[in-house]
Amino acid sequence: MAKSKPKAKKAPRKKFKKPNLKLSSQQKLVLGSFLIILGIILCIAFISFFFTGKADQSVINSLPSRKSETQNWISQFGAWLSHFFIQRGFGIASFIYSGLIFLSGVYVLMDINKAKLRKHWFWGIFIIIWASILLGFFSKKNDILGGTVGYELNTYLQDYIGKIGTSLLLLFGLITYLAIRFKFTFESFKNIFKSAKKDIKNEFSELKNDLVVPIDNNLSEEAEAIKSTIEVPLENNKTPVKKEVKVKADVSIATLEVKVAQEEEEDLSILEMEVKEVPEEQSETDNLANKLVEDFGQFDPTLELAKFQFPTLDLLKKYDTEGITINQEELEENKNKIVETLNNYKIGISSIKATIGPTVTLYEIVPEAGVRISKIKNLEDDIALSLSALGIRIIAPIPGKGTIGIEVPNNNSTIVSMRSVIASKKFQTSDMLLPIALGKTISNETFVVDLAKMPHLLMAGATGQGKSVGLNAVLTSLLYKKHPAEVKFVLVDPKKVELTLFNKIERHYLAKLPDSEDAIITDNTKVINTLNSLCIEMDNRYELLKNALCRNLAEYNAKFKARKLNPNDGHQFLPYIVLVVDEFADLIMTAGKEVETPIARLAQLARAIGIHLIIATQRPSVNVITGIIKANFPARIAFRVTSKIDSRTILDGSGADQLIGRGDMLYTQGNDLIRVQCAFVDTPEVEKITDFIGSQKAYPEAYLLPEYVGEESGTSLDIDISDRDKLFKDAAIVIVTAQQGSASLLQRKLKLGYNRAGRLIDQLEAAGIVGPFEGSKARQVLVPDLIALDQHLENEI
Ligand SMILES: Nc1ncnc2c1ncn2[C@@H]1O[C@H](COP(=O)(O)OP(=O)(O)OP(=O)(O)O)[C@@H](O)[C@H]1O
């Protein structure tokens, strides 16, 4: 069975639920509106303080009493609060407090992400202090501009670092604020200046155009006639002013035509038509589902591990060698060498541009007109020789651009840390189904792909070039993005060492066969059972999808969440399953066809039902990566390989042999090859992540795959009672109750694969419970009811 979580066990656990400190919806409404009102009151009191503050001064200094009269619009409370915040506190900047309190109210009311609110508070207080110090500069003691705090802090700073020092410190504060809060960089400042310059330019040119308009309007009335008259002097006297006049005349003719067309259209639109919206008719199940959703909310698959926390970013390491440094000398040198080499072969270059990536720099050149591209491509080795560098790759031409690319490895390559790619906005905000942050491209952009779209991934590369790191990067990405309820891994690791760390998250993320002890499969014979079991899971899932009238897993799960599928019919939330096979070559060598057939079946059919394969191999030879496998793995990653032939086997072209290793890779998902520097995640980092997840509450056991009974352990047809399948009696009960002798019924009810269900039917036939095979019709059931069945089975013994 796919998932066997006894319900009886769950019930008592609910009783001992810890008290929940979360606010209920009503409490949120009360607290949220309180804060919003408090924010508004503060704001009103503060505004009023500017007009009434002086008058209220005497009241503030005396003890509060009902008799004292204040001018503040919020009376004593307002006078006291504004005195405390503005005069005694931070001056005008205190308005930010009222804003922050108001915002907090909105956040609580609408239940928005609290982490963001904390950020708002942190930066809000920062800017309050900063502004009050700044305004303290211009204020006197007890002034409301910077408040007492602003004034005192300012004089304190001035005593130690003087006026200039304080101003510079304030400037530094502002830069820090802009840089961290709004992600400002030096480039953004430059861009602001540039765009301002552009705007001014545009304004000028618009002004110029405006100047010509009157002439244009005059012309438009008899444009045709005037055009001919203007054209004559133009030919005689080609002054720029006259030229402009001619162009304008043309334009006005064009606008004239458009206007006529518009008028015609208007005529048609006089007759207005009322469009009546017809409400969509809802079927009965929809209504029921809507009611269920109304009563219980959408089904939440993560509920069982509701407190599960995703691993935090600080479990991943920062590296010193991160971040790109531009080595101007190196760039210049390489550029000169490229130009020189090409010149030696009489190839002129009209322009050259460099893009610096983490490990390689891409020089994009535009050759002079008339140069044949194949000529440059043939010079690959010569350019490599002149640059005396390994791993030069020439892309001629770069698809989608009219340029030729020459990739040259950097002298000092930088590490792309897993932390940087996981933290990237692209990954964090991605709405992909199974997002994977693979690394960074040559233009230093984070490269994120969707495993669900691939839909399977083939990874190859010689030993020590970064395959295992690549696999870990894939798994880590999914751990950072997917809840244990949403994805399960089946890990096959013949090397026995690479994936063992993931043992710790067995009960969270791994799937295994019911009778196996370890979730990570290291024994090749067990792989065959697992693969066949996955095929059964696939068949079962297809059956479920068929019954639910869904085309793919995402649709099915959405329907299940909307409570449109009845769990009593066998429906359940289906997690994605990712099968990872390290060292596929080894597997094919020892098990051959037995492995290849189920892998090929899965690769061909499993995409729609959410089973995705990732296969890694050291030896990308044709007898390992066969035609069938290749055809079904359009997405491929090639790390460095030793020969052109290997490169061709993986990528259908050369390139992988020219990589520089250490995570330098080529990715393809069809036609384009993308060079990516794989993100680096070290074993201790993976260990930390698995420890972090492993220490949290888990499911009672790993996700169970369907049981697979190998051919050899199946029962023979001349049935010996003791040889019968374990589920024989259950199957008999199902068949007799339904009075329908069909294997697919057994498959559905007992969640079996086709083969086992077929064998059970044969055994039932041998036991005289169902009749013989009758072609497309279901077999006849020979036992009328369950009592008769009991008697029948007793008589056998
Ligand atoms: N993305 C990367 N960035 C930097 N260094 C890397 C990267 N990937 C791999 N390396 C370096 O290469 C070494 C070998 O990597 P890895 O263990 O992944 O190779 P492999 O292809 O799995 O080898 P094998 O097949 O023998 O297991 C790592 O220990 C690391 O030093």
Automatic annotation (TrEMBL):
Pfam families: FtsK_4TM, FtsK_alpha, FtsK_gamma, FtsK_SpoIIIE. GO terms for cellular component: plasma membrane. It is a multi-pass membrane protein. GO terms for molecular function: ATP binding; DNA binding. It comes from the Bacteria. InterPro entries: FtsK/SpoIIIE/SftA, FtsK_4TM, FtsK_alpha, FtsK_dom, Ftsk_gamma, P-loop_NTPase, WH-like_DNA-bd_sf, WH_DNA-bd_sf. Its main location: membrane. Signal peptide: none annotated. PROSITE patterns: FTSK. ATP binds at residues 461-468. Residues 444-648 form the FtsK domain. The chain crosses the membrane at residues 29-51, 90-109, 121-140, 160-180. SUPFAM superfamilies: P-loop containing nucleoside triphosphate hydrolases, Winged helix' DNA-binding domain. GO terms for biological process: cell division; chromosome segregation. Keywords: ATP-binding, Cell cycle, Cell division, Cell membrane, Chromosome partition, DNA-binding, Membrane, Nucleotide-binding, Transmembrane, Transmembrane helix. It is found in: Cell membrane. Belongs to the FtsK/SpoIIIE/SftA family. This is Cell division protein FtsK.
